[in-house]
Amino acid sequence: MYKSVLLMFILLATYSCAESKKDNNTTTETTNIDKKWWKEAIVYQIYPRSFQDTDGDGIGDLKGIINRLDYIKSLGVTAVWLNPIYSSPNDDNGYDVSDYRNIMSDFGTMEDFDKMLSEMHARDIKLVMDIVVNHSSDEHEWFKESRSSRDNPYRDYYHWWPAEKGEPPYRYSLFDAEGNAWKYDEQTDSYYLHYFSQKQPDLNWENPKVRQEVNDILKFWAEKGVDGFRLDAFQFAAKDTTFPKFPDGFEKNFIQYYAMQDGLHKYLKEMNSEVFSNYDVMTVAEGAGRTLEEAHELVDADRNEINMAYAFDAVDIPKADGYDLATFKETFSKWDSAFAKKGWISIFLSNHDQARMVSRYANDSLAYRAPSAKMLNTFILSMRGTPYCYFGDELGMTNNPKLKNIEDYKDIAAINGFKKAKTNNEDLDEYMRNLRFGSRDHGRTPMQWDASENAGFTIGTPWLPLNPNYKSVNVNAEEQNEESVLNHFKKMTALRTNNDVLVYGDYKLIQKEHKQIYAFTRTLDKDEVLILLNFSKNEASFALDNLAAYSEIKINNYLELAHTELEITLKPYQAVILGKD
Ligand code: GLC
């Protein structure tokens, strides 16, 4: 066979310089593409509580972020999404806001915020704020007023059910230990609705005054110069407020029953015309509806609602006992093709509601942590859609083995979920197995800066334990190692930033049946790249008739690439991007 007589040769990866390959012709030939800064953005998500503490209370703060802005800039990311930093009693770590125009004292002051924003802008980094307005905290002034009497002017800012009407129709609560989203409140002998915890009462979006309040809050931050908004849990804002009785088992598909109802588009259009369209801001909503059509209705430019959807199909795939690469490929390919011509999506594999991506999708063992983390970062940064990179993933941070027993967890969802499982006589060992694999707390353990005590995160006691692997997995060590996950991440951001094909190019899945390799091309005019990702811990071969055409190695997470003219053999978790010369 021709193939077999060819000598296997080894190409030393030269990481061909992304900068020098910027194709100016491509840029000018792509006028039919609707270019936007937020499509070209690389978003870095910071969980402020866990990023950098400066005052020794064991909790990250805004001054800490300011101190680390040069690091953030060095990553090659262009925008930061910050989880909520507003005043909050922290029942759900800031997703329970008690004052939308103030900074949580744990995090600092408004002065710190203003400084942080201007220092970000001085470095050309944009800031996206998290807006939590499906619910507020029960300690917000609006709720204090609302619960004080039935005829208080703020009463209809929330959803109340008078006790004389009998028990309200059951609603499932995502975070409640008892599971019911209605909470009885003695003061006015009524129940209020809370889809999340009891301290997160749902706002009544049918009340135009609530919508005006929210638009004013958005304007307040837009006037300060922030560059975008992420609308938290927003599909829940539009609910059926006639509160019909739902069929048994509706919790399994609860979105269909009590989110995404009529009204959602009206609310978003109002926000768009009152706020978004008057500022150069990007907008992304958590959740993307139930179908691709519904996602389009949120994000298509002619709808004048938001810019991009943040869908969960992909992060829902991994389970404690593994997952199927075929499903992974199918999911990403389905979302890409649905938005190929119109609309825009987000690409991510982790965030503050997920465990660490390398532990969920790849391999966090000593031998494979680094190549597999690099492989996942290559994937995120080579797909069409705006990439969201979660802090620490640029280092290959992993799930934390210190989170063993329920007492080790801080997340309200984990703790109340455990209580609920116990009440319902569920298998608690299985509950803990799933928690150890998928808990949100794994994604929230502190940033690993160096090998000193507590990884340079704090001089106090960290609010969640550091992952013991911080002695070797940390910024300081990885900055000094040319082959680190961190340096690979920087090469990938540079490659994406300097190659429009990775932002705007068409995506095509190839050899979709391949059991180990995820292979796809991105094509923009004459520019084409081939991306090959080995998702397995075994070597994997990939044959292609015109392989020789892809003669330039643009990125490689190993020093070598074994291939003939017709076949490439990838090492465990090897990731390469090849270009046509
Ligand atoms: C969103 C947030 C999550 C939070 C929840 C309630 O899903 O991402 O962290 O707990 O909303 O606000």
TrEMBL record:
GO terms for molecular function: alpha-amylase activity. Residues 45-444 form the Glycosyl hydrolase family 13 catalytic domain. It comes from the Bacteria. One of its GO terms (biological process) is oligosaccharide catabolic process. The keyword Signal applies. InterPro entries: GH, GH13_cat_dom, Glyco_hydro_b, Malt_amylase-like_C, O16G_dom_2. Pfam families: Alpha-amylase (PF00128), Malt_amylase_C (PF16657). The keyword Cell inner membrane does not apply. Residues 1-18 form the signal peptide. SUPFAM superfamilies: (Trans)glycosidases, Glycosyl hydrolase domain. Keywords: Glycosidase, Hydrolase, Signal. Belongs to the glycosyl hydrolase 13 family. This is Oligo-1,6-glucosidase.
